[in-house]
Please model this.
Amino acid sequence: MRRFAVIGLGHFGFNVARRLYDDGHEVIAIDMNKDLIREVKPFCSQSVMADASDRETLEAIGIEEVDVAVVSLGEKLDASILVTLYLKEMGISQIVVKALTDDHARVLKIIGATDIVFPEKDMAIRVAERLSTPTVIDQVEFMEGYSVVEIEAPKKFWGVALRDAEIRHTYGLSVILIRKKGGKGDILISPKAIDVIDEGDVLVLLGEDGDIEKFKALSG
Model:
């Protein structure tokens, strides 16, 4: 179990706090809005109505004891920057901050944010990708420059054994899982070279973003 602080309980912050708590972690939820504090109380370990942009308040809460801090302060760019700076100075090793603009994100990175999220922008991109390439079921960033993509097997691979498909050799992608078609829903984890890709199978691939885009084009 890890300890989290979620600062700012708008739609994004509230749902992050609730999910972390449901997953069994200890969560401190912080906001200045008493209604949001009352609403989040059943979904966190501790709810605190406070101004997180005051360093003494953060110290009084014991924020330096958390493993991860999530900052989501809506349109308050100055407050999110100030809070991020305080968290960095207090030794929080992982600071996740919701950014509103690219410039905002750059400043947050400079002062100590370890992870930047653009919830609305990221969702818009994922929706657009699904509309553009309907065979892509989902795609998640694994690390900078690399992603995991879940995609329906392109027609050229139907009936082909994995070794003959040469997906790694030709496209630089690792097939980490195959979800077989049909009602059985068999899942092949770390599939073998002799496993055959059938029509309707779903491939889960890991690789560089550029290579993934080339592979996605096969289904265009």
